[in-house]
Amino acid sequence: MIDVVGFLISWLTLLGIYAILALTLNFESGTSGVTNFGKVFFYGLGAYVGATLTVYLFLLLNGVDVSKTPPYDVSGIVLLGELAGKNPALNLGLLALSLATAFLVAGVIGYLLSYPIIRVGPAFVGFTLLSTGELFRIFLQHYEPVGGSRGLMSIPGPFSWVPQPRLREVLFLALVLAVLAATYLVMDRLTNSPLGRTLRAVRDDEVAALCMGKHVPKLKATVLFIGSGFSGVAGVLLAYYLTSVNPDMFVPAVTFNVWAMIILGGMGNLRGALLGASIFTFIDRALSFVTPQLGVTVISPDYVRGFAVGLVMVLVLLYRPQGLLPEGRVETVAWEELGGGASG
């Protein structure tokens, strides 16, 4: 029998995490015209920053010598599981530290990576970030302090001290939705701000923006700082939700799934990004729940997801390139004072 409540919690949690990625990619590519094919790099970077900080600091602050009992070793993993629910303040404090650190690290690296590339030529940004993500994944597979190809496991969750598993899930879902709401508010304010209007001008005609005196490379690098920082935050939430990370979670397909979300929902429209993320994550979770119930083993949700992503992108680009929710007008104070144009 299908656990409907469990399905909804699982879907909404993943929706919240993917929606953060979709909103930020929409801001980068839909609003600003920056082609980012390396979204998964910043997502994975945030996940590893959060996971590594948490497991090492958790053991150190509990008096464990990590040189003898490293967190990627079996004894370290067992110890993390035993200590996870002992100190609620430590769990919550490490989550806050991980979110802040992941935002800064991913954001600064996004800025430093993109600024010189944009100065050379904006056409190189997408593929340079794509290859950087792959290099990062290969590096992680061979870097033993973060567990190598096995990754890090038994990451103590912020609510591990709560005895009821279902209540823990609901509390974490509330946390994810709160972060998603904050991300939406920030993206909405930025999109409708003078900076947002400048970014649309850069997207529509970069040469004209340069002629008007706009520092285009700096503007685009700033966009990458903001988008990459929030992607790092989404990565931390994923690491805490799954309580583990490994390099194979951050393959290029993740980036293209997020691209499919914003293409389907509507480039340049924040609500479209949410709609696209809702549809794709629902299909993904529904396949994961329903397929085992049917006893069908030849149909893997991963294969169906890949097929669906490709098919949807082709159909949408052919028949509705503006997406389900096309880009709307920019909301400004002057527009509101005029009564939204129609009534003014």
UniProtKB/TrEMBL annotation:
Keywords: Cell membrane, Membrane, Transmembrane, Transmembrane helix. It is a multi-pass membrane protein. Its main location: membrane. Coiled coil: none annotated. One of its GO terms (cellular component) is plasma membrane. PANTHER family: BRANCHED-CHAIN AMINO ACID TRANSPORT PERMEASE PROTEIN LIVM-RELATED, HIGH-AFFINITY BRANCHED-CHAIN AMINO ACID TRANSPORT SYSTEM PERMEASE. This is Inner-membrane translocator.
